[in-house]
Write a sequence for this structure.
């Protein structure tokens, strides 16, 4: 009972911290302290925070290495764009349309997570990482072959595997809209993403992940991570709980992808390549496996840092790499860990440092 109260307080502090950051940033924007360039980074930063927290569910809490998280993000991004662009006339209220698009993105990515997870989660270690990496590349190639349009008759979808078809083959009626143009990606998208929606998505993600971690299912997932044989010996359904964590992570990545896609008027599948998956994995590792607060801070700092270093031109990636090395050395220092343990609230026996 005492542990439950402690975890509730820590969860509340996490939500409160996100809301406080939102209020401060909103005030800075309204007072003109943050310029347009800085404000433009807010929505992508929110998306990457959700990506980092959701991947931490798979890597840190479930204990499985996934290198295809950008694939789920791409599924959500293009599914969300299709949903939003198709509902422009039916749902003119933009926040509602954005919400529907994020739900559609989450559902589609969740379905992709089930399709991939059922066979893949039987593998472990390097084998799982290689297969999820292949999934991400397959999704990218499939989207490059996808041509989608919408008119009064509904959606028109064709796959251009041989490279012989064009948007004219969709057979759209007058007034129809081409949403995805194969390798050109989604162009002419109405940008409806907002920083407020991003913060709401972060809060929803934290609510889902933190409540899952502290639930009976979360304890079963962590038991599988710590000792698969012992967990199986006491009757824990390994496949069920691994799939639960993996699909939840994929669905949250899909919602982040939908928000990300609707923040840009033009988006190509090449954006969600292997480098994006590695970038999100860096956020998770640098923030600490299983550490939700660490994922949030690492995602924000490491996404904003390269943009802040643009003034040093060619040296910015060198500085970025040096900062990464120094932070990794610092976070593995026993003295710093002891100091952080005093500053950051942490209940005894807990597996996850919120």
């Amino acid at each position: 009972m005492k542990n439950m109260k402690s975890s509730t307080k820590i969860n509340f502090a996490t939500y409160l911290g996100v809301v406080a950051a939102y209020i401060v940033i909103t005030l800075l924007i309204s007072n003109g302290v943050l310029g347009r360039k800085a404000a433009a980074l807010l929505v992508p930063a929110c998306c990457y925070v959700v990506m980092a927290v959701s991947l931490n569910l798979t890597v840190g809490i479930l204990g499985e290495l996934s290198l295809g998280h950008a694939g789920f993000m791409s599924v959500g991004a293009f599914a969300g764009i299709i949903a939003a662009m198709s509902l422009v006339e039916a749902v003119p209220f933009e926040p509602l349309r954005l919400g529907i698009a994020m739900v559609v993105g989450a559902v589609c990515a969740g379905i992709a997570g089930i399709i991939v997870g059922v066979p893949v989660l039987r593998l472990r270690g390097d084998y799982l990482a290689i297969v999820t990496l292949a999934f991400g590349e397959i999704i990218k190639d499939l989207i490059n072959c996808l041509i989608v349009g919408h008119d009064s008759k509904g959606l028109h979808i064709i796959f251009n595997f041989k490279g012989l078809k064009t948007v004219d083959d969709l057979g759209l009626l007058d007034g129809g809209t081409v949403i995805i143009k194969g390798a050109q990606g989604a162009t002419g998208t109405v940008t409806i993403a907002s920083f407020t929606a991003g913060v709401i998505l972060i809060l929803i993600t934290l609510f889902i992940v933190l409540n899952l971690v502290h639930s009976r299912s979360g304890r079963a997932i962590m038991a599988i991570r710590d000792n698969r044989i012992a967990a199986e010996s006491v009757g824990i359904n390994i496949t069920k709980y691994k799939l639960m964590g993996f699909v939840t992570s994929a669905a949250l990545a899909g919602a982040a992808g939908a928000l990300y896609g609707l923040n840009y008027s033009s988006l190509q599948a090449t954006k969600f390549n292997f480098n994006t998956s590695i970038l999100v994995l860096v956020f998770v590792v640098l923030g600490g496996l299983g550490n939700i607060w660490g994922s949030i801070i690492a995602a924000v700092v490491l996404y904003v840092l390269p943009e802040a270093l643009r003034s040093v031109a060619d040296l910015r990636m060198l500085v970025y790499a040096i900062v990464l090395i120094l932070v990794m050395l610092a976070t593995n220092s026993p003295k710093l860990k002891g100091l952080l343990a005093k500053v950051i609230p942490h209940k005894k026996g807990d597996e996850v440092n919120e």
About this structure: The chain has a mean pLDDT of 84.
